[in-house]
Every structure is written in C-alpha cells, then in structure tokens.
C-alpha cells in the first residue's frame, strides 16, 4: 500500500465518522435509549397509532376550522375512528394528557424538534400569574 | 413482513456492504501505483527566483505540501476544477457560459450535507443542539407550519437540474451512461419520498428513531416489533436509502473518496526538482546504466532485462504473439 501515512488515517476518519452514533451515544450513556411514555387516562379522539404520526395535521385542521368556520360549527370535530363528537380545541387534549413535559416533550425532544405551538398556546405546565391584590402592584410602582 | 425485510434485514446488509465496500475501494486505490507524476496545472510553476508567482499560481500549480493541500481543500469544498474547465464549458462561438455542472453540483452537495446533518437527529441521543439550531435556521422556524426545510427542496431541484442537464444538453446527453442517469434517479427517488413523507404522508418519527436505536444496539427482537408498526411510506424512503448505501462503493458515487486519490489533483507540480520513481520498477533488477550525477546526487535508471520483462507481461505478450506478431527483445 502506498502513502500509508495518509491512507490509514483516512480510513480511520471514515470509520469514526460513519459510526459517530456509536461513540456519541456511548459517551452520553444513551445507547439504545427509548423514553417511556405514561399512558394517559381516557380514549384519544382518533386511533393512537394514527395520532402518533398525524397529530400535527389534526391540530392544524382544528386551527383552520376554528378560525374560518368557528361560528358555523367548525369547532365540532367528528372522530372518524369512534364516530363521536369532540370539541376541537387543545383543551380537549389537556383533559386527558396531564402535562406537556410528561407527554409531548418526551417524543419531541427525542427526535429533536421544538414546535412553536406552545410559545403562545396554553399548556397545563404553565403557571398562571396570580393577582393577590393592590399590595402586589406596589412593589412594581413604589 | 415488509417491516422485517426493509426495516431490519436490508439495512444491516446495506451498511455492511457500504463500510466493507468503501474500505475495500480505498485500500484498492491505495495499492495502485502511480507510475508518472501527472498533476494538471493552470498556473506558473515554481521556477527561477525572478519569475514571480501569484497566489493563484500557488494553488493552480502547487509546489509544496501546503499548496497541494490547499488545492485539495479548495477542490473538495468549492469544486474549482469544474469552474475552471472553460475549454469545455465556454462556447467560443456563442460566447455562452455553460458551467451548469459546477452550479448545480455545489447546490446539490451542500444541500446533501445539510440534509445528512439534519438526519443525524434519528441516530444521536440526545440530539446535538447545533443540529436543532441548523434545522430551525434553514426552515425559518415559525414561517410555515410544518416547517419547510430549504435544503430538502433545494436538493430535489438540484437533482432535477443535474438530470435535465444530462437530458437536454447535447454533448452531455451523448456522454451520459445509464449509470449516470441511475444514480440521479435513485437520489431523486430518495429525496422525493423523504419530502412526501415529511409534508404529506406522515410517518411516526418516534417509532422510526426507536427502530434505528434498536438496530444500532442489535436489539433485534425489539426492532422487529417496532418495524411492524411503521407506515409503508417510511419503508419506501428507508429501503431506497439502503439501496443507495449498498450501491455507493461500486459506483461513480464513490468519487467522494476518489477525489482524494486523483493523481492530477493530489501531486505537487515539482517534476523538475524531485525525481518521481515508478513504484512498479522491480527492486532486485541489476542496474544497466551507471546513472546520471546531478549536483552531487546520482540518479540511476532501472532498466529491465528481457527475461524479467517477459515474465512480468507474459499474458499480454503471449496475446500479442497469438495475433501473429513477432516478439523480440530490443537490440541495445
């Protein structure tokens, strides 16, 4: 073999680069890690496996329906799995799923996406500001 | 069943073929001797001290190790040789610049780099923050829902442009082989199926990462279990990507490694200063010539005697003899 001092490092760089997940996950101690999801109480509006892949489309459709046809019954959602009627709102989700961090974030963090829904929308993990009277304001306007 | 075949068996085979194949090709190239010093140059070579060289001459006609390394890096990251091939791409009659290969090629390769970096989210746990940040920047996070990744669309556009170049430009159509079209069609199928999966036919990405993590930790029982639950569109993308991995080492796509072994790129242009010895000159052949002494150093020429030469090239010489040619040693 010619130019061994260049070729052998090249092969090593290729192997180390290609098998990055092995040493990266081993160093992070997460080799073969899969997060455990707590089963929420109650039935989902649609089939569980369908929701796992398509919940973002459902929420998007709910948003469009609520904005454009909210006054004409757009907020009534007919489930095509169970046939029942649901109120098309994230509050319907939060009635079973107890928190964003325990449920949503588990999968989202796992595959490294951060949807911007919850920059504005309500989640049960938000602590609402509590107004306890005129005395509280005095510390801002003293 | 389809999950087990394309989700477990095919990717293992494909990755094995890819790794072994790439190492085999690299070792094979490294074992090939380079008989002549053949750097292609486009600048003033190093000569007498009063002949000035600009910085372009240094990269286009490198003399030192660093200049050669610089030229290699510029070649790898900017594809300069495609940009500089004006004899082929500049039409002298119509004065048209047709260096589409450079433009589309650089668009494709950098999109591919971004796409590969984004895909590392399915293999790395926790996902590195720069991968997330890069995805958010390139999708202009918050503009579209779901986020539209520019590199994902640009790579499809670049592949179509590269393919149209081969179809609609007459010279390129003439010299395109089926393998050229096949590589582009395969990459197009992978990128289009990936985009379809992202925007139209959703797949459960959590299960996808679960499958990949189990495959990587050889937890095959769990992998088979998960593979059965994933949507078919994922297997279109995943199986095609596995085929690409398996096809990669034995095709023209191996130019990823081949660029490093191009003698016209990776040799310094120092013909006149350093002697390049042909590596397949046999070492134990008696020296016929006494050699030339230049500046105190003696350079000897290894010329072969007839028996050794005949032994080395027996097959070819016999083939020539069979065609009714007479083979005799040269009279010195």
Features:
heterodimer; A: 142 residues; mainly alpha; 2 domains; two-stranded antiparallel ribbon; 2 strands; B: 332 residues; Fumarate Reductase Cytochrome B subunit
The portion of residues assigned to helices of chain B is 55-70%
Q: Quick one: overall form of chain B? A: globular
In DSSP terms (H or I, runs of 4 or more residues), the helix count of chain A works out at 6
Give the biggest beta sheet of chain B: 2 strands, antiparallel
- Portion of residues within helices of chain A: 40-55%
SS-based structural class of chain A? Answer: mainly alpha
- If you compute it from the alpha carbons, what radius of gyration of chain B comes out, rounded to the nearest whole angstrom? 27 Å
Largest interface: A-B, 36 and 46 residues
Q: Residue ranges of chain A: pLDDT <50 for 5 or more in a row?
A: none
Characterization of this structure:
The complex is a heterodimer of chains A (142) and B (332). With 142 residues, chain A is mainly α. Chain A folds into two domains: 1-30; 43-125, no CATH class. Chain A has six helices and two strands. Chain A has a two-stranded antiparallel ribbon with strand order 1-2. In chain A, strand 1 (76-78) and strand 2 form a beta hairpin. The longest helix of chain A is centred in the middle third of the chain and has 22 residues, at 48-69. The N and C termini of chain A lie far apart (81 Å). Chain B folds into two domains: 2-266, Transmembrane di-heme cytochromes, Chain C (Fumarate Reductase Cytochrome B subunit, Up-down Bundle); 281-332, no CATH class. Chain B contains 17 helices and four strands. In chain B, the strands form two sheets. Chain B has a two-stranded antiparallel ribbon with strand order 1-2. Chain B has a two-stranded antiparallel sheet with strand order 3-4. In chain B, strand 1 and strand 2 (96-97) form a beta hairpin. In chain B, helix 1 (2-31) packs parallel to helix 13, helix 10 (178-199) runs antiparallel to helix 13 (232-247) and helix 11 (205-216) runs antiparallel to helix 12. Chain B starts with a helix and ends in a 10-residue tail after the last helix. The interface between A and B is large, with 36 and 46 residues.
